[in-house]
Amino acid sequence: MLLAAALAAAQVAPVPPDALAHAQAEALIAGLDEQLLATRSATATLGEWCAAHKLAADPTIVAVADHGPPVAPTPEQRAHLGIGADEAVSYRRVRLMCGGHVLSVAENWFVPARLDPAMVTALGSTDTPFGRVIASLKPSRQTLSAERLWHPVPAGWEQRSASPVARRCEAVPAELLRHRALVLDGKGRPLAEVVETYQRDMLAFPTPWARRAALRCATGRR
């Protein structure tokens, strides 16, 4: 019991080689995907997830900025935002964190002219997540694409003669999901395009398979 608790608290438990564990992982990822796609604010949903799964004593989501070189928007992104080739677009890349856990890496191309000056200042000088900064604009999201990066149970497994379950313990990959969306204000005007890649630490809690992982994976048994 102590080993299972320590494993779950310290890291994301690998998936042991049994059908139940893989089904549990598949259900958890599918539910997370649906929850994120249905939300009006990814920041708020991450905070709710952090609190529900007790990832940190304080579930407040903090955006840790990456101060690397800016990435210019593509012509397609400018079209999504409804702006011309010469209109200013700002770029922000952050790690959205709950305590010591990186839950998402988010890239954001936003139109500063469509935000209040104080919002633009906050996005450039603070660690406040984008969704929280623009909350007064009553934002919503329009999904452009959604990609599952991890499939614990492969598609079409029911048509295969062999078992879909790996014979060895499977580490949860670093990236789980990737969503691309437009962020709109309360009047439906595009404010930003975001690309959010949800990370392994979304599962840094005692997952349903954590106890079995401690017994079958941490001890070297396969």
Number of domains: 1
Distance between the termini: 19 Å
The CATH architecture designation is 3-Layer(aba) Sandwich
Chain-averaged pLDDT:
89
How many β-strands, per DSSP?
Answer: 6
Question: Which regions contain 5 or more consecutive residues with pLDDT less than 50?
Answer: 1-10
Order of helices and strands: HHHEHEEHHEEEH
> Looking at CATH, which topology would you report?
Chorismate lyase
Using only C-alpha atoms, the radius of gyration works out to: 20 Å
Mass-distribution shape: elongated
Strand content: 15-25%
- The CATH superfamily is Chorismate lyase-like
Helix content: 25-40%
List keywords for this structure.
222 residues; alpha+beta; Chorismate lyase; six-stranded antiparallel β-sheet; 6 strands
Tell me what the structure shows.
This protein is of the alpha+beta class. It contains 7 helices and 6 strands, in the order αααβαββααβββα. A hairpin with a 5-residue loop joins β5 (175-184) and β6. α1 (2-10) packs across α7 (210-216). The longest helix has 20 residues, at 19-38.
Please outline what is shown here.
The chain is of the alpha+beta class and 222 residues long.
